Amino acid sequence: MWTPTTFHHPAQGCAARATLGIVHQTGPTPTGFHHLPRTLRVVNDQFGEERFGARLGVTALLHRWGQNLMEHPHMHCLVTGGGLINEPGKSPAWRGPKQAQYLFPVQAVAAMFRGKFLAGLKSLRTEGALEFHGRLELRRDPPVWEPTMGVLHGTKWNVFGKGSVAGPESVLEYLGRYTHRVAISNKRLVRMDDRTVTFRYKDYRNGDALKEMTLGGAEFVRRLSLHILPAGFTKIRHYEILGINRRATLVPLARQALEKSPWRPEFAPVRQTPLPKPELRGCPRCGSEDIVCMGQLDPSGNFTGLRKGAMRVRLKRVNLRRSGTAPESA
Question: Using CB atoms within 10 A of its CB, is residue 48 exposed (0-12), middle (13-18) or buried (19+)?
Answer without folding.
Answer: buried
